[in-house]
What does this fold into?
Amino acid sequence: MSIIRYCGLVIFALFTVLLTSELKRDIGKLVGICAGVALLVAAIGKLVPVFTVVKQLLGETVLAGYFTTLIKALGVSLAVDFCADLCKDLGETSLAGRIELLGKAELLLLALPLVSELIKLARGLL
Amino acid sequence: MRAVSVIAIILVFLSLLSLNAAALESVDIGEYIPDEVKQALPDGIFDDNANIADKLSFSYFFESIKKSFRSVAGKYTADLYTLAALLIVSSLFHLLSQSTKGELEGAFSSVSSLCVCVYVFTVVATLFEAVSEYLGTLASFATAVTPAISIAYAAGGNISAATVSTSGLMLSIAVVENICAYLLYPLLSLVAALTIASSLSPKIRIGTLIGFLRGVMMLGISFTVTSISVIMSLQHTLAGAADTLGARAVRFAASSFIPIVGSAVSEAVRMVAGSVGYIRASIGGVGIAVVILITLPVFISLMIVRINLVIGASLSDILGCERETQVLKQASSLINVLIALVALCAFMFVYFLTLLLKCSSAYG
It folds into this structure.
């Protein structure tokens, strides 16, 4: 699906949200959420071939490990940010804060092997 | 009675000459050189009739530099490509993560800079080990060759210079080893650890502290080496003058008080001293070549890695990765200190050997 069609879909969703908000606010928000999820899935679908090609180029080099970590970190960031935005749109700011905290904890967990490696290096130097 | 005294004087001088000949036979610095360096030396350099000046020519040193460069360049060029690829991938991910907001973007940025930090400091840690090994090899060679230097001085009548040079060289080795082991190396490791810590979070700002510690190290290294070199050259000059005075007094006594053959004996001693001068220059020349060959691989490795880090920092800056740029710049400045340490230690030992090379015989 081309980018023009995605733009068209977003404009259609926007009009739908505006119209349905007049009738029933909850339906409008649901339409917005569905459009957002669809666009996020489409964006991930566009990125997957890029990541696949880059991973193939990197092969079995030392970069492959770092690349996997970065992809996971990016995925966590985007997913958590999307959920947090949804929660804020629906008025649940505390829920948004909790999911952001969970996202940061997950990123810290991803960074843990790197931090251990660095501490080992620093200890070796000292 | 007069005949007895003449015979006694002649026997004394002959015994003095024989002491020099016996001492020269035991001068063999070949056994103190590391094997890989011995293979890099020109063929036949330890032969009796070797022409040292021809063998240690400019072309030989340029070829040695080229060989060392070729042996290390391949590995570190691959490291540069890996670093560049990591930075490009990191900047692409930064671009994608900019759609997230505030602290999540900062958290992702931390993960990205940690990846670069781990890679860079793995390379820096191997260089630390290489420099440590280099300093050990240099100190071992200098310690092992000190008796040969002492003998070379003594054989030419420079007894005071032998004492001064030997004690000065041993003291310098001890000072450099202790300063490196107990001050410089721990300080350098501390700076590296602080640099790693500062890369973990942008809120940890220790750039000023790192800069101060680096400045202290550079000052310490420069001051130590300069002081040792100045004191050594001063002592060497004074000792050389004292030896020359003593030796000329002996020659004068020989030519004045030994009848008939006095001047011949004096000239014979001068001729032997001249040959000792050639041997001394050969020992000095070969010693300098060995120090250069020991230093070249480490020095070239450090220079190439530094260039890689500078190129990496520039690329990271172009790609907009600020924290990665800071990590690379700090790692590069650490390498600067290592380069200074290696260069100054090599300079100090080359200077000692140059003093030997330039020292004229006391009898001449």
About this structure: Chain A has two domains: 1-48, 59-126. Chain A has a mean pLDDT of 82. Residues 59-126 of chain A form one domain.
